Amino acid sequence: MIEFRMPSLGADMEAGTLLEWLKKPGDAVKRGDIIAVVETQKAAMELEIFADGVIDRLLVKPGARVPVGDVMAIIRSSDTASVPAVKEPIRSTEPFGGLDASTVAPPSALPSSSAGQELRITPAARRRALELALEPASLLPGPDGIIGLQEVEAAGPGAMPTRAKGIANAEMRAAIAGAMARSNSEIPHYYVSSTIDVSRTMTWLAAENAKRSIADRLLYTVPMIRAVARALTKAPELNGRFIDGHFQPSTVVNLGIAIALRGGGLIAPAIIDVNRLSLDEIMQRLRDLVARVRGGRLRGSEMTEGTTTLTMLGEDTADWIMPIIYPPQTAIIGFGRVADRPWITEGRIISAKTVTVTVAGDHRVSDGRAAATFLNRLDQILQEPDTLC
Amino acid sequence: MLNVDFAALVKASLFSVAPDLEGEAIDPDVPFRDQFEFDSMDFLNFIIDLHRRTGIAVAEPDYSQLASLAGAVRYLKSQIDSQGAE
């Protein structure tokens, strides 16, 4: 028997609210299958199972708030899965009344991403549905195919006052504050930064994009992600997790990407094993992540398997950033905006596109020298954009 | 020139790439970036969607001309006009 527990989907998470089960008792599950959707303070997250087996019991009901670490379901391991199917319908010992497996729609009937279709519901609507104790999957989308606040209110009991749009979510703020306070108290941060001439990379990218159709154009974030991931392969102290008092370096780079939410807040899901991806694949993953951060669902593994994080201020913002490490990671890399600035080369002052990159490192694991070496390597890589393909 | 409601077209593109903004009032002169925390990904998706709707492929160096509703309308009109003049 395997206990399936509420995972910690980030240092800022204390509990999650179960939105729906996508599997029912008796269903066979494979490692990586999505079995539940939970709402955290930040987003709806899809929980994957990390072993093969058969769902034995579901211990919590949709709508229940489940602390991190609490058992949510019992999974029979595949070895013991030869239990006769006839035993499966006996559910008189359901630990909670009401939720018989028959009330849980089979996964194929749910518009889940595991069924190939995303349930298109806005985070605000999802939250509101939860408040009104409505099943998101039971709601009818509007004419645009999306379940918004309007659709939730229409399905809700009577006219409920709608919350004003655009208010920074207090829970989100509390979650970020909690995680960052923990990071600052646990991790002895150091900061090292360099200003890097990215003219070559930006020129290369402009030429590349001019050759491409609009839909295939790359954001400059993409070659930057590639360069950072390459440079990290030779900076093991900046790429891993600090767990139970020990640093565990990672052989692959799972790069967390800090993505801003409209109305405030950040989520940093990871692109898994960046170095195996082409530039186009990185762009595709980034587009997918941004879309799911804003309106859909993230997968639990994207929140737990990051080995370091990248945060980019973006165009028309500010020059540099001193970011705070997401525990249990041991480094975070911050890019200020890329802008035209005076630059000295071969004794002359020229105009160049530059960016200031700051590495926050963890003194329990490394010193500033590791970050400086990383920055020099990053600089070298960005001078040879042809090699980024 | 075709009688097209460019403002409605631009709004439709905007809402299709940022459905969470549907129904929001838009100040035509304030860049989307400042009004709605539009980032570079939102903007690229917006340009892609405009291309799908109008066939106009905005070159990267022209992006800044479409930063606001009024700017985007002006740009699309100028493109259609120059096409019509050819």
Description:
The complex is a heterodimer of chains A (389) and B (86). Chain A is 24% helix and 26% strand. With 389 residues, chain A is of the alpha+beta class. Chain A folds into three domains: 1-83, RNA polymerase II/Efflux pump adaptor protein, barrel-sandwich hybrid domain (OB fold (Dihydrolipoamide Acetyltransferase, E2P), Beta Barrel); 107-167, no CATH class; 170-388, Chloramphenicol Acetyltransferase, CATH 3.30.559. In chain A, the strands form five sheets. In chain A, strands 9, 12, 15, 17, 18, 19 and 20 form a seven-stranded mixed sheet that branches. A five-stranded mixed sheet of chain A has the order 7-2-4-5-16. A four-stranded antiparallel sheet of chain A has the order 1-8-6-3, with no helix packed on it. Chain A is globular and about 70 Å long. Chain A starts with a strand and ends in a 7-residue tail after the last helix. Chain B is globular and about 35 Å long. Chain B has helices spanning 6-17, 32-36, 40-54, 69-85. Chain B starts with 5 loop residues before the first helix and ends with a helix. Classes of the chains: A alpha+beta (389), B mainly alpha (86). Chain A binds chain B through residues 120, 122-124, 144, 146, 148, 165, 206, 209-210, 213-215, 217, 219-221, 260, 262-263, 286-287, 290, 294-295, 314-316, and chain B through 18-22, 24, 33, 36-37, 39-42, 44-45, 47-48, 51, 57-61.
Key descriptive features of the protein:
heterodimer; A: 389 residues; alpha+beta; OB fold (Dihydrolipoamide Acetyltransferase, E2P); Chloramphenicol Acetyltransferase; 7-stranded mixed sheet; 8 helices; 20 strands; 26% strand; globular; B: 86 residues; Non-ribosomal Peptide Synthetase Peptidyl Carrier Protein, Chain A
